[in-house]
């Protein structure tokens, strides 16, 4: 079946997700704050919408992938937002990494208008988008989730269901706290190895042969050694995500000292001009302090 899908947000992850849906036979209407990011999709056959509301008109479901809670509010609410464009009973599935408070609020506002909001954040990078192996956490009412299940299956290889949107949101934030912790541990180890005249490549090789190994250590370790900081996940976005984790932890009165320490390092990276580089570039903050460069 050729589903008519609206897609809002065509950034690093959003554009390949939209392309994936097109490759699976969906008919797409797309919108982004800057139209040039939609050029390749439009050339491939997607229809451009001038507003988020327009993406929702006549769509089986509308999907969004934006960078911040404020961006999600912007494309969702107001006279030109997705909520206004959805027909009664329509479904908006957001894939962004935002706050649990926001997704719970949106679910209430949609329900008050007889519409449906699901939160389905994703775990994975562009390569997982391309081959359809993202992991998705789908939070919200069962009837709406079942209606969009065929679309979700096009994007990922495994889905976990949660009764409420904010549970899916929290799960995604917890996963991203692992990303932050792992890159912090990796960066400090490689810098100390270099400073101590231990070959960082040898250290990675040893880790790779042990129970300590993880794909992230190998891919990001090699990227650091090769000085390849082409962004797959911006430093500024990781800073935002860990900040959201800490906000949630503080609200729940749960101490997170490791996340606090890594957030400080990531914040320093943003302040030093690394916001738009890949998150592995936080190693540069430690390199500058230690007076070495990992190669």
Describe the protein's architecture and organization.
This protein is an alpha/beta fold and 295 residues long. The protein has 2 domains: 4-163, NAD(P)-binding Rossmann-like Domain (Rossmann fold, 3-Layer(aba) Sandwich), CATH 3.40.50; 170-290, N-(1-d-carboxylethyl)-l-norvaline Dehydrogenase, domain 2, CATH 1.10.1040. The chain contains 14 helices and 9 strands. It has helices at residues 14-23, 39-43, 52-56, 69-76, 82-85, 100-112, 126-131, 142-155, 165-195, 200-208, 215-225, 235-251, 257-274, 283-290, and strands spanning 4-8, 27-31, 47-48, 61-64, 91-94, 116-119, 122-123, 134-139, 156-162. Strands 3-2-1-4-5-6 form a 6-stranded parallel sheet. Strands 7-8-9 form a 3-stranded mixed sheet. Helix 6 links the parallel strand 5 and strand 6 (116-119).
Secondary-structure blueprint of this entry?
Layout: E1 4-8, H1 14-23, E2 27-31, H2 39-43, E3 47-48, H3 52-56, E4 61-64, H4 69-76, H5 82-85, E5 91-94, H6 100-112, E6 116-119, E7 122-123, H7 126-131, E8 134-139, H8 142-155, E9 156-162, H9 165-195, H10 200-208, H11 215-225, H12 235-251, H13 257-274, H14 283-290
Parallel strand pairs: 1-2, 1-4, 2-3, 4-5, 5-6, 8-9
Antiparallel strand pairs: 7-8
Helix pairs in contact: 6-9, 9-11, 9-12, 9-13, 9-14, 10-11, 12-13
């Amino acid at each position: 079946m050729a589903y008519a899908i609206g897609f809002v947000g065509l950034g690093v992850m959003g554009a390949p997700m939209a392309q994936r849906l097109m490759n699976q036979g969906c008919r797409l209407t797309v919108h982004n704050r800057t139209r040039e990011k939609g050029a390749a999709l439009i050339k491939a056959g997607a229809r451009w919408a001038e507003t988020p509301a327009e993406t929702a008109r006549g769509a089986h479901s509308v999907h969004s992938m934006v960078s911040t809670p404020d961006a999600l509010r912007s494309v969702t609410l107001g006279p030109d937002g997705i909520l206004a464009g959805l027909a009664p009973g329509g479904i908006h599935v957001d894939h962004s990494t935002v706050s649990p408070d926001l997704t719970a609020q949106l679910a209430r506002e949609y329900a008050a208008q007889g519409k449906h909001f699901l939160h389905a954040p994703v775990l994975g990078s562009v390569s997982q988008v391309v081959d359809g192996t993202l992991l998705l956490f789908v939070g919200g009412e069962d009837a709406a989730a079942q209606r969009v299940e065929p679309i979700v299956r096009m994007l990922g290889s495994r889905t976990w269901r949660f009764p409420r949107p904010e549970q899916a949101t929290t799960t995604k934030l917890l996963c991203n706290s692992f990303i932050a912790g792992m890159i912090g541990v990796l960066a400090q180890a490689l810098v100390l190895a270099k400073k101590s005249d231990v070959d960082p490549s040898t250290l990675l090789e040893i880790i790779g042969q042990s129970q300590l190994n993880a794909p992230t250590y190998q891919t990001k370790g090699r990227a650091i050694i090769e000085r390849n900081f082409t962004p797959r996940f911006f430093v500024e976005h990781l800073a935002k995500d860990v900040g959201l984790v800490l906000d949630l932890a503080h609200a729940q009165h749960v101490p997170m000292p490791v996340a606090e320490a890594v957030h400080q390092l990531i914040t320093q990276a943003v302040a030093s001009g690394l916001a738009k580089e890949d998150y592995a570039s936080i190693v540069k903050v430690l390199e500058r302090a230690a007076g070495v460069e990992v190669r």
